[in-house]
Each structure stands twice: as structure tokens, then as C-alpha cells.
Amino acid sequence: MTVLVSGGAGFIGGNFVLDWIAQSGERIVNVDKLTYAGNLDTLKSLRGDDRHVFAHGDIGDREFIESLLRTHQPRAIINFAAESHVDRSIHGPAAFIETNVVGTFNLLEAARAFWQELNDDEKSAFRFLHVSTDEVYGSLGATDAPFSENNRYEPNSPYSASKAASDHLVRAWHHTYGLPVLTTNCSNNYGPYHFPEKLIPLVILNALAGKPLPIYGDGQQIRDWLYVKDHCSAIRTVLANGRVGEVYNVGGWNEKPNLAVVHTICDTLDALKPRQGAGSYRDQITFVKDRPGHDRRYAIDARKIERDLGWKPVETFESGIEKTISWYLNNQDWVANVTSGAYRDWLSQQYEN
Ligand code: NAD
Ligand code: TYD
What we know:
Layout: E1 2-6, H1 11-23, E2 27-32, E3 52-56, H2 62-72, E4 76-79, H3 86-91, H4 94-116, H5 120-125, E5 127-133, H6 158-177, E6 181-186, E7 188-190, H7 199-208, E8 213-216, E9 222-227, H8 228-241, E10 247-250, E11 255-257, H9 258-272, E12 285-288, H10 303-309, H11 317-330, H12 332-338, H13 341-352
Parallel strand pairs: 1-2, 1-4, 2-3, 4-5, 5-6, 6-10, 7-9, 8-12
Antiparallel strand pairs: 9-11
The structure holds nicotinamide-adenine-dinucleotide and thymidine-5'-diphosphate.
């Protein structure tokens, strides 16, 4: 048996591939375009392991995807591939439309053509699992109930709008063509192998480098934080037992304002790797210009996946952040590899100009 993932050299996809091989041993074909966010170093422990097949390519390349499906005959496709950073979507939305909307469309069409040729048993066992975000639901007020699967779609950034569009395509391919789809909408992930353009790894690495820790606006925006390994176990659960056509929200039950997240990182680093000289890493906190259209609050009501499928997260924010910080302290070679010239160009575009 084989499953095919897209975007498996990225943050969540990479963690998923590593956990999948460790837990199930089933072969996994991994299609990734290797954009700035894709990093084969994450998968280096799988070199020479024939349970992992890496295929360098674009989900938007229909012929390429169709030939992979014909060759490997997967029983499921899990779509992680995306442009994923809100700030980059503000600077350049075109790539988000190309990969998240047109790319997902192409993947769905290739999947549909493949699925239609399967025999009845294979057809009913096949799954297309689409990994999406809570950002499609828009922004919550301080006292609003967390997002449930029935919330209206109200995306506010080019990133979330492109993900919302992809979710609608996935839904339509089920209703119109019968493709057996599942969709997960999760909150902000954090953990090992996270590219340091996102808040948590950026703050860890800037702190260690003695650089400013940039807080957008007043730092009171709220996110729910989900440890990436918990997210991977949720996806495995939905793939195994989710009801076809259903949407599952996945969250960590960890709502925190950004400033509190940064304080926790500073305090943990103060304990694990005290600053050279005096003072706390908190001294490096710097308030900077806010993100345009910055969503104030995301929160996930993850009761459906717990009630229907028995999944809930294992990590608290405190246990997850300690694991994450320790991982960055112990994996400086991975960090050195991803913080290349292109990464430095992004930092100067976003934080200096
Ligand atoms: P990421 O940016 O770290 O990785 C994306 C991966 O997709 C990279 O390896 C990249 O090379 C690959 N890719 C990009 N365009 C491609 C294309 N056209 N064809 C093939 N591969 C391509 O993203 P992530 O944080 O791992 O997110 C994975 C998925 O989870 C995304 O769909 C994202 O929208 C969703 N998500 C992420 C978060 C989060 O907190 N990181 C939260 C909610 C949802
Ligand atoms: P991010 O990690 O980019 O995820 P998302 O925008 O998908 O939620 O940002 C998390 C929060 O942290 C978000 O409210 C924006 C904020 N933020 C900062 O305050 N400073 C930063 O340098 C970054 C990258 C994010």
C-alpha cells in the first residue's frame, strides 16, 4: 500500500512524512516543488529508505501528477502543498493563487481521472485529504465563540482567500463528481523544522542571534497554537476514520496573545540558554508596524474531531514550546542550511524597508 503527499518537504508535510514512516511503515510518495519553504534536509534521516520516494515537481503539473499516480497507485492523496505565509501573500499574492487555487484544482483533476479508473472496492477506499487552515473563517472578536465547522467563510488575507478557494474546490469535487474527500482546518502549528519566517521560530532564532524580536502592532492578536506532531496524529486519524465529505477543525486548545507567546519563549530561553552578559531575552522585544488587515483573533472549537473520531491534542503550549526550543538549540545545522541568502533577503524586505 502507498499514500501520496504533496508538500512533504515543508514544515507540516515533513513532520508528517517522518511520523508516517515511523508509525506505519507504509510507503509514502512525496511530491514537492522545493520552493524556499521546502527543505530536503528535514528528510535526511530517510535517505536510502525505499519506503520514502521523493518526486521533485509541481502539483500544478497535471501530466507529472497523473504519471506519478499511474506508477505508484496510491490509496490516498494528502495535500499539504501551498504557499503558506500571510506576509508573503501581502507582498506577492500571485504565487498563492497559482499554487493554492490552480495547483489544488490540477491535483483534484488528476486525482479524479485516476480514481475513476479504479475498481469499485478501490474507489470506495480511496481518499483525498486536503489540509487547510482556520484562517478561512476570518477574524473573531474577543468574546466570540471559537470557529466550528459551520462558521461562515470570511477570509481576509490573500493567503486565506486562496485557501478558502481551494476548500471550495475540494467540496465541489465531492458533491459533483463523488470524489471521496476529507478536509481539515487547523490552527497555527509550531514545532521542529518550522521555517523561521513564522512567529515562533523567528523569535527563537532572533533571540539567540541577539537581534530584535519584532511584535506587530500591540501584540494582543490571539492565535490558537497546535504542536505539529499533534496535528500529524489528527491527520492520520481523519484519514483512517473520517467520514467522506466531512470537514474537521483541528486545534490545540491553546489560545494566546502574541506578546504572551514571545514572553514564554524568552523566559524558556532564559532558563535553557541564558543570554551572554546581563538581562533577559525580553529586552530584545521591539514593537513594529502592524501587518495590513491583521486578523485579531483565531480560535478553534475542536470538539467534533474529539467526539466523532476520539482525537485530542497531547501537548500543552508549555510542553510543546519547551520541546520546540530544545529542538532549535540542538539542530543548529538545519537552521544554518535554511537561513540562506534568500532568507536574509526576505528579512530585509519585511523588517528593514
Ligand atoms: P510550508 O510553507 O512550510 O511548506 C509548503 C511545502 O509545499 C514546501 O515544501 C513547498 O516546497 C511545497 N510547495 C509549494 N508550492 C508547491 C507546488 N506548487 N507544488 C508542490 N509543492 C509545493 O507550509 P506548512 O506550514 O507545512 O503548511 C502545510 C499546509 O498546512 C498548507 O496547506 C498550509 O496552508 C496548511 N496550514 C499550515 C498552518 C501552519 O501553522 N503552518 C496552519 C494551518 C494550515
Ligand atoms: P505567523 O507565524 O506569520 O502566522 P499567521 O499569520 O498565519 O497567524 O504569525 C503569527 C502571529 O504573530 C500573527 O498575529 C502575526 C504575528 N507576528 C508578529 O507579531 N511578528 C512577526 O515577525 C511575525 C512573523 C508574526
